[in-house]
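During the reporting period, our protein records have gained a structure token line. A sample record is set out beneath this paragraph:
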Amino acid sequence: MKAQLHNLDAEGTAEIELKDSIFGLEPRTDLIQRVVVWQLAKRRAGTHKVLTRGEINRTKKKVYKQKGTGQARHGARSAPLFVGGAKAMGPVQHSHAFDLPKKVRALGLRHALSAKAKGGALLVIESAKAGTIKTKDLAKRLGRIGAENALIVDGEFDSNFALSARNMSGIGLLPIAGLNVYDILRRDKLVLTAAAVKAIEERLS
């Protein structure tokens, strides 16, 4: 498939060829969803924790004798029934991560890129560079190409461009090495530089 190559002044300079095996697939939402769930599970801290019966600091002495009182049998004040006792089956620290095959992760990334391309939300620009550090000027230029809320992907960002964009709430910058399904879907538009397109095709071919 072909896409128009623009500069930041919204001028179409040429056409660029995009690989159909990466940008031209029929998007499968089930694959994309699997990769997003895997990503979000990996980033969960899993540090929620309550004291179990073995950890709570209460006396282990038997509360009262086993029989003859007419009350339930209890062996310790750490039982969940008592005030100050442990919580029954409460959360403990653990990892929420699970395995997902590399092939499925790569396929999910291809389908996320194809979904953006099919939805008309994929923009390809020559380069992400700015002459000066000026957030207002960069916001205007990105507005001309319809990238007010966008993820911009490049191999290595120009320092002026990065400093100009860092204070823009609707713009996210991501190096090609960190390209992932969740960040692609979070933004309305995906903006790739020509260098990023080449690197993506080398990575996913």
Notes: The chain has two domains: 2-44+97-204, 46-95.
